[in-house]
Design a protein that fits this description.
The protein is an alpha/beta fold. It is built from 2 helices and 8 strands, in the order βββαβββαββ. Helix 1 runs parallel beside helix 2. The longest helix has 19 residues. It is globular.
Amino acid sequence: MRVVIQRVAEASVAVEENVTGQIGLGLLVLVGVEDADTAEDLQWMCNKIVNLRIFDDAGKVPNLSVKDVNGGILLISQFTLHAATKKGNRPSYIRASKPEFAKPMYEKMIAQLSTELGKPVATGIFGADMKVQLLNDGPLTIIIDSKNKE
């Protein structure tokens, strides 16, 4: 499981010009699922996202999590995070899971993040053509891969 996390002042996602999810202060999380992902990967990733200390405290030091600042999470499925670009100029998405596996994992991630955050997680629509808008705060962008826990 691979995620790109962006700390945002606000973010939203629309499908066919209809907003399906939006947040104010919080995290925009793009997630890509691969067949090797497990329930343990999902649990580890959700815990990491909710507890990542990347928001400033009163002293302007990043000591607070999205939960600490009562922020929101906007979760967007994005299979292209598993693009392989080693050969040629056309990315290969062979590592990305097919919808039969990826969609249930995405839905479990929504539920787990909502539980850990203590409130609903905003989302896009799995597999849809989405338009994402964000105001990156920092900018602060972090990439995490559950198979490479650094």
